Amino acid sequence: MTLTILAALVPIALLIALGAALRRGAFLAPAFWPQAERLAYYVLLPSLLVHGLATARLDGVPVLELAAVLVLSTACVALVLVAARPLLRLDGAAFTSVFQGGIRFNNYVGVSAAAGLYGAQGVALAAVANAAIVPTVNVLCVLIFARYGTAERARPGPILRQIALNPLVLGSLGGIVLQTAHVTLPPGIEPALRALGQASLPLGLLCVGAALDFGTARAWIWPVAAASLFKFGLMPVATVLACLALGLNGPAAVTALLFQTLPTASSAYIMARQLGGDAPLMAGITATQTVMAAALLPLVMISLGALTGLG
Hints:
Pfam families: Mem_trans. It is found in: Cell membrane. Its main location: membrane. Belongs to the auxin efflux carrier (TC 2.A.69) family. The structure is a single chain. By secondary structure, this protein is an all-alpha fold. The chain has a single domain, classed as Na+/H+ antiporter like fold. Helices cover 81% and strands 0% of the residues. It contains 13 helices and no strands. The radius of gyration is 18 Å and the shape is globular. The chain starts with a helix and ends with a helix. 51% of the residues are buried.
């Protein structure tokens, strides 16, 4: 398990490092990075979500039980995060980054690790995990940006409009609708969406690396620690409790625990940049959690799995 997870994490860390090197070496014009972030947010990431969710194969997967565990654990941790905000003593923009760092996940690592652990069954389980928590996480994050990303309390109308028009939410829902309706993507459209989605990972991670500002690293320590405590501590515990409560076990339970212990994805940084959050802090959380996950993810998976017998 450890080697499988490490194999999925290493290229992510390398791409983040390359993005930092490209930015500091001025290899690309500074104006490139904001445009790359916009392209990833409005085109590449939605394509990834539509294609991944629409083409998933779900035969023999406990869809409802797995989805319920993931949505329940995510919602519980999100509520605890919001309740704990006064104790964190962070401004609104910084809190949006900690919130994303506490609940958002890197689905590339999840799919790769699940496939390495369980083969075709793992890919199907990962597809259900994505279908359940991608829209859940994106709706929750849009709500948090609408409430805490600005100085004034947002009105219900703008919040609902922001959710309805969010490209990541639309991409998630579009893929789920196509999957539910058993609609096959046309031959010309399917490879185009797949290619666009595949481009989202390297470009997003390069942008994360480019945004890293090590001059402000000391200011990251507390927010990074807080986000990581929720991500690698509370979230897996909440997931195990949800599995026990709903009777989910075996490979499906292991996959649920895997996805809920993953480090934050590059999409968190892209969303922070586009919706007015603390993007440099979000880049720091993303990079730090990616490195931490190499040690913590296998440790959490093995220890909690052994204690509860979910695997």
